[in-house]
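Minimal example, chain plus fructose -6-phosphate.
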Amino acid sequence: MHKNITIIVAEDYETMSHKAAEIFAESITANPNKSFGFATGATPVGMYKNLVKLHKQENLDFSGVSTFNLDEYHPLAPDSPQSYRQFMYDNLFSHVNINKNNIFIPDSKAADPHMEAKEYEAKIENKGGIEMQILGIGLNGHIGFNEPNETFDANTRYTPLAKATIESNARHFASAEDVPTNAITMGIRSIMLARHILLLANGVNKATILRDALLGAITPLVPASILQLHQSVTVVIDKEAATLL
Ligand code: F6R
């Protein structure tokens, strides 16, 4: 295992979520005016619950931080229940003292999504870059919506979703046909510029891809494998996801 990767194996999802929230909260407390990167999906929901708890019970202060989400579907109404904007407000932003002017999520209805992506990248840079980026991992190794075979030097961009991703995300929509075919996502390069990465995964179905990503060849076929070259990665996973490491 690479020296730059720390792996924490938690007993179960709850413990994993608690540990991840603790690490993230420490970073926010140490860097109260910096930018932080957020992910959606099932994996970080428990961590967000714990962050809300830390805010309510221990005054964890979000008032100075800026937030950048990894990705957003396009096109989709921003108030659609499946939008990542809605997800973030439901799970975290509505429950903590984040300044709403400092919340950045790609615009799911931007008239020119290519331009929106370019401007998003510039905003991250203008806000000083990302201190800690939360990541989940797709069954095909994607991070954000960087699907297999995307180049490692990709910036934030407008991109089609892989068939496997559309099928996997169909569980959140009425049918696979209702899943948007495109998204705006931070690129691998944008993600690699974050000063710290906090990668979460749980469940036995993530075991194979975690092994490939963390121990296998560094290849665009497994987008998350590039993290082996990042200077500071903390992986927090449950026992089931860790079975092949
Ligand atoms: C979400 C994202 C995706 C997810 C990945 C895992 O913003 O960028 O890469 O992290 O698809 O999703 P879950 O957590 O639902 O297994």
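The pocket of fructose -6-phosphate is lined by residues 39-43, 70-71, 136-138, 142-144 (CB under 6 Å). The mean pLDDT is 96.
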